[in-house]
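Work Package 3 (structural annotation) set out to generate three-dimensional models for the target panel prioritized at the project kickoff. During this period the team completed the workflow that converts sequence records into discrete structure tokens, so that structures can be stored uniformly alongside our sequence database. As a representative example, we reproduce one entry of 167 residues exactly as it appears in the project archive.
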Amino acid sequence: MSVFGGIGCRRGCLVIAWLVAPLVAAAAPGDGQLRLAPTDIAALAKGGAGAGTSGVAGIRTTVLFGNPEAAGPYTIALRVPPHTTIAAHTHRDSRTAVVVSGTWWFGYGPANTSDRLKALPPGSFYTEPGGQAHFARTGDESAVVYITGIGPTDTHYLDAAADPRRR
């Protein structure tokens, strides 16, 4: 079974797992071993906005590994409901992500516009370079995305009025 939520892992997922594995092994508890089956992940605490998340209502965040607020590697799972829009924002750390389920519409730039979005189906990989503005949406279905970075992380909206944490 795949660490990517039980979906069939395409070649891109395998490359990501290979790239992330040394980070996980270096910072895993005890002897460096960490295995999470989908049922283990389902049992982990889920919360709303946390470090490195958009703060948009309805998004559920699970810390799979590490602590996004502290120095060191981390991985978070985002569960994003249908018809969710995340405005353009940045993070101080560079991050990589894999779409586990659903279609995640992702783009780069200063505003969340349709012409800059690309549909990323399950098994897709993308990057969030530190300091580079990006945005996302879901359509009629929810999406699950696993994001890995080196903390501490944060989130800064380009337009402060678009920051859902300030409403």
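Residues 93 and 111 are 20 Å apart (CA to CA).
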